[in-house]
Specification:
It is built from no helices and six strands. By secondary structure, the protein is mostly beta strands. It is globular and about 40 Å long.
Amino acid sequence: WQLGAHVPTADLDSVSTPLLSLNRMRGGDAFLLAGHHVMLYREQVAIDGASLAIRVTEATSRCGSVCDSVYEIDFFHDFTLRRRGN
């Protein structure tokens, strides 16, 4: 998000605005689990031709650094949708 300084995950809500719907998300918007994890939205994908999934960019130990991942939509149940800026 090029914030110019480190902002802890717990404080990202102070530099972002909430989005009310997945349909309003654009590339670079975030899925935020405050204090725990943040993933940047890339795109919606159909993983089996029918199920909705989301491609994100995230830093995770699973891939050893920053990588792209795909999760089914239900995975994001506890996350908030955020966009950079207030």
